[in-house]
Design a protein that fits this description.
Length: 225
């Protein structure tokens, strides 16, 4: 039963992401007013307006705070990109596909053993301490050197969440840039919408993994007493 529930939860997460992706690829409304960057005038940067039923959804009025909006947009895009990669990674690992070998030099912690107690937060407890230090160090370098957290726009077109490389860490260059403003803004909106769906999807997956892990640790001693 637990396996069936897990499969159903995974299917629901995938369907949620696909639905958001379909909404992101829906044609834009022609009656909207365009700004200088061919976007929606209701958004400070012309981006992020859902082409689907949500349309302009800002219950907290964050779009009105134009002074801090650039930071919020850059943070949203960055978190969305990380979540899209994380969601795909979680789906791949659910299929039992992991790296060969071990996490440590001694070979005592195989990669496939990290998921023994569940995915997401429970898996962190299976990672060796030095491995966690490496993750934190990598994130710190990425946030301060490779893709500085204080850089809200960038790249050849100075777009939100854009980066044009960093000397010694990430090669620069944007191959295949979209020059047409309307096509470019549509692609940027697709990325934002898919990132939002992925943030919800990966959060849901981690929560369900925690619940499965809690059920296992709580019921296992009872059923094997």
């Amino acid at each position: 039963i637990k396996f069936k529930i897990k499969i159903i939860n995974m299917k629901l997460a995938i369907l949620t992401t696909l639905a958001a992706s379909a909404a992101a690829f829906a044609p834009a409304q022609q009656s909207r007013v365009s700004t200088a960057i061919a976007g929606d005038a209701r958004s400070p940067d012309g981006l992020g307006i859902d082409p689907g039923p949500l349309d302009f959804f800002d219950p907290l009025g964050l779009a009105e705070d134009t002074d801090s909006f650039a930071r919020r947009r850059a943070v949203e895009i960055k978190h969305g990109r990380i979540s899209m990669a994380a969601f795909i990674g979680m789906m791949v690992q659910e299929l039992g596909i992991t790296f060969p070998g071990s996490l440590d030099l001694k070979g005592e912690v195989p990669f496939d053993s990290v998921l023994d107690n569940g995915m997401g937060f429970p898996a962190l407890s299976a990672v060796p301490t030095f491995g966690l230090v490496q993750i934190i160090l990598f994130g710190g370098i990425a946030e301060t050197v490779a893709m500085p957290a204080g850089q809200y726009t960038g790249g050849p077109q100075d777009l939100p969440g854009g980066y044009d490389g960093s000397s010694g860490t990430i090669p620069g260059g944007y191959p295949g840039q979209i020059e047409d403003p309307e096509a470019r803004d549509r692609a940027l909106n697709v990325e934002i919408q898919n990132g939002r769906a992925a943030m919800l999807g990966v959060t849901g997956c981690m929560m369900h993994s925690c619940l499965d892990s809690c059920d296992h640790h709580f019921f296992y001693p009872i059923t094997h007493a």
